[in-house]
Amino acid sequence: MSWLRVLNENFRLQPESFVLAVHIFDKFLLTTKVRVKYLRCVAITAYFISIKAVEEDENIPVVGVVLEASQCGCSKSDILKMELIILKTIDWKIYVATPMIFLQHFYQMLFAAYRSDIKNISEKLLVEAEGTIQECMCKWQLTKFKSSILAYAVLVSKFQGILDETQLQTIQDVVKIDNKELFQCKVLLMKDKTDNHTISMKELRTVDVIHTDSKEKLEVVKT
């Protein structure tokens, strides 16, 4: 679903529009078998449903423009038909507490309680956490966790070291987050972070090798 996230960023819409779209998409697929060739159409339709639920009317992009940008191969009539199918399947239950909503709620709780400790860096960390939530929504292993658990795990990963465990534990106690599930979620988050770092390092080494080869070729030509 990373392509849908890029699309959402290109249209400068709220992160919640993307996160809710993934939730609608996943919820639909839980009860409905869809051929691979139709998955992109289902995803873009879920995105349209999400946009209309989250964004102000003046910010909602024209259907034709989004279809062209997404290259999903769907027509406007396809979207309208699929929209009705999805809404009926999920029983018209669009609004839900997504990981993004939980994250913002947890952040407000932290900021209200420990304003003096985090006031200078809190907004920066929140933006980073929102980005991480969106990355998580592109990984099916992480989307299987409850929204509250994923949001709390991401929040802890950002504020750990700035707030002590007792301060962070306050939220866990209030929301009653299961320790076992939280641990599993943290492990997957760490693994995903490590994998991404490994890929980045490989890319850097590849660039360095190409650059070195180019220099050697230039030196050969000069001589």
UniProtKB/TrEMBL annotation:
It comes from the Eukaryota. SMART domains: CYCLIN (SM00385). InterPro entries: Cyclin, Cyclin-like_dom, Cyclin-like_sf, Cyclin_N. Keywords: Cyclin. Belongs to the cyclin family. This is Uncharacterized protein. It comes from Paramuricea clavata (Red gorgonian).
